[in-house]
Design brief:
The chain is built from three helices and 22 strands. Strands 1, 4, 6, 7, 8, 10, 12 and 13 form an eight-stranded antiparallel beta sheet that branches. A four-stranded antiparallel beta sheet has the order 17-16-21-22, with no helix packed on it. Strands 5-11-9 form a three-stranded antiparallel beta sheet, with no helix packed on it. β14 and β15 form a beta hairpin.
Length: about 300
């Protein structure tokens, strides 16, 4: 396949691409890799979501203690029917093609990975944004995974100035705060989630994603800060280090429809449990306040009383 022949674009698409090229470098947004390019599509897996494959039976003991493959989601999952053609969001050079992954590098140090595709291009081929078909979504994936890299560093495609148009009006929630006390030692964990802004069709409908930011603070009975605001989790721009997975997430965390050795938890929603920390507190009454924030600043909070005898 070659892209050297003239390509005829519709006037609307030409204006759209010209606007992207003429925008300032700091806000050089790009559009969606599936048609229509200038319309928002459902995202069923968010940046930083836990990706969990457990080596063991589907039991609580496996969730709390089992070994496995655990990582932060290094992109976004864009929902689309199997067989949907996927296009590059930036022109560039195909640098890698595998059974389901295609990498395209641009001249400015920005590269993109497209996963879960049956390839229609070869490594070394030059491709044109919104014109070259990279491949088609493989059955039964039902989505294309998009990763953006800036000079080799994975970045969040949903931050402003990147994947566009993207809106988010859903408010994340802190669904529970767990307090474990052992004398003056207090161990704190919180469960938080968000919902996709655009409803996801099919069996992934109503399954949660993680917020982009989780922070907490502790105040005494007068409202004075005992522990000023601490950030537990922040994927608004980049991912945490892979080695910190079980320092950020607490045991009991698992992804939507998580996988065990011989079991797939079909339709089971994920649980996102975050480690807040261990505190040694003087006797008294306190309030822990946890706030979850999404990539567009929508937020939800929850608080719980903590009594240390």
């Amino acid at each position: 396949m070659t892209t050297s022949a003239p390509i005829r674009l519709s006037l609307a698409l030409f204006v759209l691409l010209a606007a992207a090229v003429c925008s300032s470098p700091a806000l050089a947004s790009y559009h969606w890799p599936v048609k229509p390019f200038d319309r928002e599509h459902p995202i069923r897996g968010s940046f930083g979501d836990p990706r969990t494959v457990f080596f063991g039976p589907p039991t609580q003991d496996t969730l709390l203690h089992g070994e496995g493959d655990f990582q932060f989601h290094f992109g976004v999952d864009i929902s689309a029917p199997n067989g949907t053609p996927v296009y590059p969001v930036r022109s560039g050079l195909v640098t890698r093609v595998t059974d389901e992954e295609i990498d395209v590098a641009g001249a400015d140090g920005v590269a993109f990975q497209y996963w879960h595709l049956r390839a229609a291009v070869r490594s070394g081929e030059r491709v044109t944004a919104y014109a070259t078909v990279l491949g088609r979504i493989m059955k039964p994936c039902g989505h294309v995974h998009l990763t953006e890299l800036d000079n080799g560093i994975i970045v969040n495609p949903l931050q402003r100035g990147h994947l566009s148009p993207y809106t988010d009006r859903t408010k994340p929630s802190v669904t529970a705060i767990r307090v474990r006390r052992a004398g003056r030692l207090v161990d704190l964990e919180a469960t938080a989630q968000d919902m996709p802004s655009t409803p996801v069709p099919g069996v992934w409908h109503d399954l949660p994603v993680t917020p982009a930011l989780l922070e907490w603070r502790l105040v005494d009975a007068t409202g004075r800060d005992v522990v000023p605001t601490r950030v537990v989790y922040d994927v608004r721009t980049h991912l945490p280090a892979p080695s910190t997975f079980w320092s950020v997430y607490a045991r009991g965390t698992h992804q939507n429809m998580t996988t065990f050795t011989h079991f797939y938890a079909f339709r089971q929603p994920g649980v996102y449990l975050f480690r807040l920390g261990d505190l040694a507190l003087r006797p008294g009454t306190y309030r822990v306040i946890v706030t979850a924030v999404d990539i567009r600043g929508n937020h939800g909070s929850r608080e719980q009383q903590v009594v240390v005898d």
